Each structure stands twice: as C-alpha cells, then as structure tokens.
Amino acid sequence: LAGYVPPEWASEPRDKDAKLEVQKDGKMVKKMPIGRKFCMLFGREKNASQGVYCRHPSISRQHAVILHDRRGRVKLMDLDSKHGTFLDNERLDPNEATRLRDGDSFRLGASSREYIVHLSSSPP
After folding, report:
1. Element holding 39 (H helix, E strand)
2. pLDDT of 4
C-alpha cells in the first residue's frame, strides 16, 4: 500500500459483493468491487497494489481510503488531502472514518468522477 498503514480496527470485508459504480458526466464508466480487498487506497500513487490510480491534478498521492470494520461496515476516510473528499457533497474531516451506506456517493478533490456505493447488506 505504498507506505499507508491501515488503522487497527480495519478488518477483512464481510460484504463480498460491495461495489462502486464510477460515473463521469452522469454516465457510468465502470464498476469496481470493494468487498474483496482489506482496503482500497485512492490517489495518484501508481505503485499502490491495493489502490485505485486517479490522474486528476487535484487528487493527492494518497488521497482517501475505503476500509471495512469488524462489524462489517464499509467506511471512507480522507487521508488529509489538500483538496478534500466529499461524501454526498459534504467535505469529510481528515483522518476520520465515515460510514458508507448503500446509495451514498463521493468524489475526490475537484475531479468530476463520482463513486456511487452499492452494498448487498447493511450491518447495524
């Protein structure tokens, strides 16, 4: 993960069918599974094996991460990026994991790509 160390509470995913629908200009570009990896790092870091490479200049090398907690919840955390991570148009506080729910959407920095969350189950 190119130097990124996940928090102690991070766990293996329970919702193996969880995915992101990636949209650009309102059109679906692709779907990405998020229920198969321990964590998923977003940023301009090309060598991150568990990562999603993002080219937009407003996105930091290590911008944000999707993690899973022990209760099976999926969480998004901004990694103190310069231009922010926005969940349903609200800027996330840096280094604070925020729960993702089915249908939530997020974007990174000033990129127009939108990531829509699709969960097959919703733990308490």
Report:
1. strand 39-43
2. 83
